[in-house]
Specification:
mainly alpha; Rossmann fold; two-stranded antiparallel sheet; two-stranded parallel ribbon; 4 strands
Length: about 290
């Protein structure tokens, strides 16, 4: 699992080149991404900044912007340049969007879609500028809405794009999050002496520097101790909240490499987890291709 995948992956053309040449025809594109920058999962981080309970693990404004920009790139590459999709109107038979069952991934998908289909670009209009409410509403409120939107379906000609979500325990695309065996094995690896040895061999100086900066004894502070604070750095690093105490940008960059190796060891370097992820994800992609193309 590469650093790019962990930070904000975008496999914008899993089975297609960016530019179609030699008479080839682009038939389908799969975009597989991670959610954008999120708030920390810990209730309280090292910097004594308390994350409100309702924001724990949620997508940040930075995360929304990241996915919006990604959507604009998809629009330019596959809608404007290669004409794979209609650049004006969303067509359900052309686009299939799905997310795992977490707020941050669903909101990332929606932000990405806004980049693909910018507000105000739709030409889909109602048959008239009068809509009849199916709920009991005051005539004044209905009249004001109809007057504001005229024949637009939604304010500012916004387009409602479907985002499909499956229950986590039945989601075959990311089956490693629902398999009890894999979850148990991951937990064991996260707390193992082997992980501590693996990280210390690669990041000994980073761990010692972290201990000193946090006022801890560098001789007793281990890599497993350092992993307890990773989420603090992870969330704040990608939200670009600087400065962070005495931690320099250079040190934070090294912490991200530490974090990458942690996830590599506990997930990507676990043969069972990796096989399950690749098999499940690829099977879903191939099935979608067979169905649509």
């Amino acid at each position: 699992m590469s650093r790019t995948l962990l930070c904000l992956a975008s496999l914008l053309a899993l089975f297609a080149a960016q530019n179609v040449t030699n008479g080839d025809k682009l038939l389908m594109v799969f975009q597989v991404t991670r959610h954008g920058a999120r708030y920390g999962l810990s209730k309280k981080d090292y910097f004594n900044y308390t994350t409100p309970p309702w924001l724990k693990g949620e997508l940040t404004n930075m995360g929304k912007r990241q996915h919006f920009l990604m959507g604009t790139e998809v629009r330019e590459r596959y809608m404007v340049q290669n004409h794979l999709l209609d650049p004006v109107s969303y067509r359900p038979q052309e686009v299939y969007v799905r997310a795992t069952d977490f707020n941050r991934t669903i909101e990332s998908a929606l932000s990405n879609i806004i980049g693909m289909y910018p507000v105000g670009r739709s030409i889909e209009m109602n048959q008239s500028n009068i809509a009849i409410s199916t709920l009991k509403m005051s005539a004044e409120d209905i009249g004001a809405a109809n007057q504001e939107m005229q024949r637009a379906s939604l304010p500012h000609n916004q387009q409602a794009v479907h985002v499909h979500v499956q229950d986590l325990m039945s989601d075959k695309f990311q089956a490693m999050d629902s398999c009890p065996y894999v979850l148990r094995e991951r937990t064991i690896r996260q707390e193992s002496d082997a992980l501590n040895t693996f990280l210390m061999e690669r990041h000994n100086q980073t761990v010692k520097d972290m201990a000193l900066l946090m006022g801890r004894d560098p001789e007793t502070f281990t890599a497993l101790n350092a992993t307890k604070y990773m989420d603090t750095f992870w969330a704040r690093y990608f939200e670009q909240i600087y400065p962070m105490g005495n931690f320099t940008i250079e040190f934070l960059d090294r912490m991200m490499l530490f974090n990458e190796d942690y996830y590599n060891y506990t997930m990507a370097m676990n043969d069972t987890t990796l096989s399950l992820f690749i098999t499940g994800s690829t099977a879903q992609v191939v099935e979608r291709f067979k169905t649509r193309v």
